[in-house]
Design a protein that fits this description.
This protein has helices at about 10-25, 35-60, 100-110, 115-120, 125-135, 170-180, 190-195. The chain has a domain at about 10-65 and about 85-135. It is mainly α. It is built from 7 helices and no strands.
Length: about 200
């Protein structure tokens, strides 16, 4: 009977763990500077833990995690120190760590397997975490099929009300002209003559 290979996530975690050990073994001899060694080892180890978390989430049938954009620093905050960056050249880790070439071949073979491609499709965050690792090992990532984009349903708009014809503006003079006038009291001079006479 042919042995059943372990899941893709387990094989990927094993490759990254062995790569961390190979990087740590090059420090005592001075082949890799200590600051660069610590940075590379931390990046690989952190990516391995996050990949295992995303793979377990995909195996449980949970929806993938949507990575948010980093928040902008407040204006009043003190300026932060620039983060240390790794070399950008493809395959730069194979020179100081020759054993990394074997793990690069294993990673390239794993990325071409159907179960690994299915894992990358189910958990898109794993592909993002593999980008710097593939760059430092000189491994080309597989081309994944485009993910279908879901559009948000547009809210239904209420039916348009019937158009009301515009009212004709009435001049103010005509309103004052048509308004009924109130009855005024007779003047004071006429009131004297209209009083009834005093009784005799």
């Amino acid at each position: 009977m042919t042995p059943v290979p372990p899941p893709a996530a387990e094989r990927l975690a094993r490759i990254l763990d062995d790569l961390c050990k190979a990087v740590a073994a090059r420090g005592p001899g001075g082949f890799l500077p200590i600051p660069l060694l610590v940075l590379v080892w931390t990046r690989i180890r952190r990516a391995s833990l996050r990949i295992a978390r995303l793979a377990a989430r995909a195996a449980a049938g949970k929806p993938p995690i949507v990575l948010r954009a980093p928040r902008a620093a407040p204006q009043n905050s003190a300026p932060r120190k620039p983060a240390r960056r790794l070399p950008r050249r493809a395959g730069w880790l194979i020179g100081p760590v020759p054993a990394a070439g074997g793990y690069a071949s294993q990673l390239h073979h794993l990325l071409t397997q159907p179960d690994m491609v299915a894992l990358l499709d189910a958990a898109p965050g794993i592909d993002r975490l593999l980008r710097p690792l593939c760059r430092m090992l000189g491994v080309a990532r597989p081309k994944l099929p485009p993910r279908p984009t879901t559009r948000r349903p547009t809210p239904r708009q209420p039916p348009h009300a019937p158009a009301v014809p515009p009212t004709r503006a009435i001049p103010r003079d005509s309103i004052l002209r048509d308004r009924p006038r109130a009855a005024r009291a007779p003047p004071q001079t006429l009131r004297r003559f209209t009083r009834p006479p005093f009784p005799a």
